[in-house]
Amino acid sequence: MNPIPLILDCDPGVDDAVALALAFGARERLELLGITTTAGNVDLAKTTRNACLIRQIMGREDVPIHAGLAKPLSRDPIIADDFHGPEGLGDYPASPPSLGPQSTDAVSFLIQTIETAPANTISLAVTGPLTNIACLIQQAPATARRLRQIVLMGGARREGGNITASAEYNIYADPEAADITFNSGCNIVAFGLDATHQVRGTPAWVEAIARLDTPGAKLVAEMLAFSNALPANLMDTSDPDQPATGAPLHDPCVIAYLLAPEAFSLRPCRIEVETTSTLTRGHTAVEFRKAVAGEFNANWVWKANPEAVLSLLLRYLA
Ligand code: BDR
Ligand code: CA
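That is the input. Now the predicted structure with beta-D-ribofuranose docked in place:
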């Protein structure tokens, strides 16, 4: 099987760090063309430094990193350091990496890379606010539509929200960018909280990963343990009668989908993003009824197999 050509846009972030480690580790299956960073969980300087640091830990300095936009399209940045720690990597010491990012910015890199590859070959994984992606679409809409697919973490339907009662963080942080992305005509797979809340890093899995004792596994085990120790009032367990164990592995689901799409069920849908309300900013209205939706614009991940995701982590961090 030929490796999948992939660009990963991210805002590390503890669960982005896990996604990055998985993507770097799965070198036989993923041809990582580059990593692009955006402001999100922490500011752009920190997300870019963290991406470079994770690349170093994983021994993948062959993969270029390009810094993107430092703030959302038309809003002030919303930092999520309550969930990710002040430096974005939980308690992990955020030492300066020996190699920094490339001089070309993320959006220029995306445009050049997609334009020079055959159409319908490159997959774009997105695990942060969609700011860089919206800029790509605004600057070069036809180029964006040459992507094979955009697989993104963002939104919520059954599960309500995690940053507010009705919105998921990545969409809330830059709702205008999400709106542009969902209306771009690109082929989109969306991992909302409905799917990612099904995939949790239970203490047993954290221990199993830690036992691998590789640099990547140690990093991932630390990220998962940090998330699992977050105060209960930050974590929504959805069902108070059956509280889930372990923090959700949001962003790793995106990479897991590329490696094992059979582990997930998808439903075609139309996704519209709330951009005008203050109360429900960033809410995703996900409609499955074609007669009501009109044209579908995305595929919503409905069901996830958590064992499959965690097995991939074990395999590719070993
Ligand atoms: C998303 O928000 C971020 O805090 C996480 O990294 C993930 O991408 C979950 O809502
Ligand atoms: Ca993220």
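Strands lie at 4-10, 30-37, 65-67, 123-126, 149-153, 188-191, 264-273, 284-287, 298-304.
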